From TrEMBL:
Region (Disordered): 72-106
Keyword Transcription among UniProt keywords: yes
PANTHER family: ZN(II)2CYS6 TRANSCRIPTION FACTOR (EUROFUNG) (PTHR47338:SF6), ZN(II)2CYS6 TRANSCRIPTION FACTOR (EUROFUNG)-RELATED (PTHR47338)
Keywords attached to this entry: DNA-binding, Metal-binding, Nucleus, Transcription, Transcription regulation
Protein name: Zn(2)-C6 fungal-type domain-containing protein
Location(s) in or outside the cell: Nucleus
Domain of life: Eukaryota
Organism: Penicillium frequentans
Compositionally biased residues, Polar residues: 90-106
Principal subcellular localisation of the protein: nucleus
Residues of the Zn(2)-C6 fungal-type domain: 15-45
Keyword Signal set for record: no
Length: 694
């Protein structure tokens, strides 16, 4: 016989916290119920009596807990006559819990601390739905980049906390038909986390929930909310001393899970953390951890040393090899330093990059030292990603997602450090700064080489039909696109053709993230505006051969710093701030001609041509190799199909010389082209793969 509403409420109040979380019948013995005694776990109760010292706040908290239980059990909201409760008989103010379409709309006194914790009515989540959400998490999000738990740790959803279940559904709904419920489950998960904090019952799964909510917010482009979740999770880790190496000296069955959580939060901080804020941690603080090369290193304060890295043996061939996820984390630390470098450049604080004490030189030094940690088993030539079958990549997705993150991070670091925009703008605002020709020449070669590598990685990912979801990959493609846009006005026609081709590929790759990531959608719109300004036209097609372009300075900074947040009409701080605290930023006309930089002819990387034949080959475009479709090229193929590189070329692979203009497709085409990773080799060395890779 179903119980009436009052008995249900009393039953919920009498149950201990563990039984209430599992939604099981609680014997309600004091001080510990028999269920908790049998499971050997602490038994806690929430004091909700009317005469408790908590007063009206405790009663309101108990009512909210009851509301959560009703929602999660699929009973919806309370009957209309129970939607208002008076905490005390002598109190005149009433507090209402809304059930409208938005949790931001509530009535009553806005200064009351509990009135904003409203819920939407929901049908609840079935076991099949939870299992499907967990399956989507491991299909798309696991180790890309967060790594909180393994499959066996969440194989039984009945033992998971409600906030973790709602957080998993929030993150993965964008990949299913239930994407309209992201807001609903996100609000519920945040409220459950806050109730845990209010009750003092924080668990490991509560911090994991904040990690998932943070990553979900970054996918949505809601940086303020994502950084709030991230900062709260890091603070809770500090409270639990999960950030100290000494904590892990004691035997703990969940030690590995704790380490994975802590370093997953660090990974998010490296990529999406706030730059330049007073609360941000400088990357130099962790230099000794990331760059330590021996176990005998003397640490002055071992109690404050970060925790060890999680056990990651995937893809390793010996016990001394670094795991691929841990390596990606190390390169992420260097990427965070590059973000600081770009931030300083945007503030006109550039130190001459050729100086030995400059940030540029230090980042290059750190990156080079980290390359020594890259074990042979993970290197490009060893894993041969380009030879792997798509089904093989899907089976081992946990490894390849981290491997691709490392590769994209490495090439993006060198692309940003040598981006010509940084030094053109620096010389514009600092007339005393003179860029030496040798630096221009070298940086032009490096930026073109690694921006091309990003495109080749995109080609391979596309060819293997491997779906990536981390917004960082879209950001890397957008950065590479700005480099190729710059070289679209190069003097060399072959470099111009190649740049237009690669620019188009970067654009299409970025658009593949738009369907599930509003952050990448905003980034794509920014790149659209930049293209229109650069070309002076609404459409850029194959016939576009500019002699000069106009680069929008504000939009370029937005792309390099991934500041492409939604407009205020789309509430970038939705779910976090009251309208009275909404930040007011000065409006900037980013399409104003006065805020653009005119590039007449982009400096092409110097090409040295073999002149032993009298220079007859100096202006002859090379003949392209035929691409084998079903069978390898016959040994008797005509010699004219091979490429011959100049003997004394400054860069032997000079990729722009070997670009085939016929590869260029219309920039408005959204379909992926065939990969060109099967291009033939130049005599004596590979066209692409022997230079600049890891």
């Amino acid at each position: 016989m179903p119980r009436d509403g009052n008995r249900g409420r009393l039953r919920s109040h009498e149950a201990c916290l563990n039984c209430r979380r599992k939604k099981t019948r609680c014997p309600a013995e004091k001080p510990s119920c028999s269920s908790c005694v049998r499971l050997n776990q602490p038994c806690l109760y929430t004091t909700t009596s009317k005469g408790s010292r908590g007063g009206p706040s405790a009663d309101r908290l108990a009512y909210l807990e009851e509301k959560v239980n009703l929602i999660l059990s699929g009973k919806g909201s309370s009957p209309p006559d129970q939607n208002k409760v008076k905490p005390q008989d002598n109190q005149e103010t009433t507090y209402s819990i809304p059930s409208g379409p938005s949790s931001n709309e509530f009535s009553g006194n806005i200064n009351e601390p509990f009135l904003g914790l409203g819920f939407e009515d929901t049908k609840g989540h079935t076991p099949s739905r939870v299992s499907r959400a967990i399956e989507l998490y491991f299909q798309y999000c696991h180790r890309q980049p967060i790594w909180c738990f393994e499959r066996e740790e969440v194989k039984d959803p009945s033992y998971l906390s409600e906030e973790l279940i709602c957080s998993i559904i929030t993150l993965t709904s964008r990949f299913s038909q239930d994407r309209d419920e992201i807001q609903q489950y996100g609000d519920t998960a945040r409220t459950l986390v806050m109730l845990r904090i209010a009750n003092g019952t924080i668990e490991l799964e509560t911090i994991e929930s904040l990690c998932l909510l943070s990553y979900s917010s970054f996918l949505d482009g809601n940086g303020p909310l994502g950084r709030f979740h991230l900062g709260l999770a890091l603070q809770l880790c500090r409270s639990a001393m999960l950030d100290l190496n000494s904590t892990y000296g004691i035997e703990c069955p969940s030690a590995e899970r704790k380490k994975r959580l802590f370093w997953s939060l660090q990974s998010l901080e490296q990529t999406y953390g706030q730059m330049g804020g007073l609360l941000s941690v400088q990357a130099e603080v962790l230099r000794s951890f990331y760059l330590s090369t021996g176990s005998d290193q003397v640490v002055e304060k071992p109690a404050h040393h970060p925790p060890p890295l999680p056990n990651d043996t995937m893809g390793c061939t010996s016990p001394s090899d670094f795991g691929i996820w841990n390596l990606a984390l190390h390169f992420g630390w260097v990427w965070n330093r590059v973000r600081s470098y770009v931030f300083d450049c945007a503030q006109s604080k550039l130190t001459e990059p050729w100086r030995h004490d400059s940030m540029y030189a230090m980042v290059i030094s750190d990156l080079t030292e980290l390359e020594n940690k890259l074990s042979l088993c993970h290197r490009y030539d060893s894993v041969k990603f380009y030879e792997r079958r798509p089904d093989e990549l899907r089976v081992n997705r946990d490894y390849w997602a981290s491997w691709l993150k490392l590769q994209f991070t490495y090439h993006t670091i060198l692309t940003v450090l040598n981006h010509p925009f940084l030094y053109i703008v620096a010389s514009q605002y600092n007339h005393k700064l003179t860029i030496p020709n040798t630096f221009w020449r070298r940086s032009s070669e490096v930026v073109m080489l690694h921006a091309t590598w990003i495109v080749r990685m995109i080609d391979m990912v596309t060819d293997k039909k491997m779906r990536l979801i981390d917004p960082f990959f879209g950001h890397a493609a957008a950065i590479a696109a700005t480099v190729h846009l710059y070289f679209c006005c190069a003097a060399d026609p072959r470099l111009k053709y190649k740049s237009k081709t690669d620019f188009s590929k970067c654009r299409r790759f970025l658009k593949s993230f738009v369907s599930f990531s509003p952050a990448c959608q905003t980034l794509d719109r920014t790149l659209d505006k930049m293209t229109r300004i650069a070309s002076g036209s609404e459409k850029v097609d194959f016939d576009w051969e500019p002699s000069k372009i106009h680069l929008s300075i504000p939009l370029m900074w937005d792309v390099l710093q991934i500041k492409c947040l939604p407009t205020f009409d789309e509430t970038p701080t939705a779910g976090l701030l009251h309208p009275s605290l909404m930040p007011i930023l000065p409006e900037e006309d980013k399409e104003n001609p006065s805020s653009t930089l005119e590039v007449i002819v982009a400096m092409s990387p110097d090409i040295t041509v073999n002149t032993t034949d009298g220079g007859s080959a100096a202006h002859i475009p090379p003949k392209m190799p035929r691409i084998a479709t079903s069978a390898p090229t016959s040994p008797t193929a005509p010699l004219a199909d091979k490429l011959v590189a100049p003997a004394d070329s400054l860069m032997a692979n000079t990729p722009w010389l070997w670009a085939d203009p016929s590869q260029f497709v219309d920039m408005e085409t959204l379909g992926y082209p065939e990969s060109e990773s099967t291009l033939g080799n130049i005599d004596g060395f590979s066209t692409w793969w022997d230079f600049g890779n890891l």
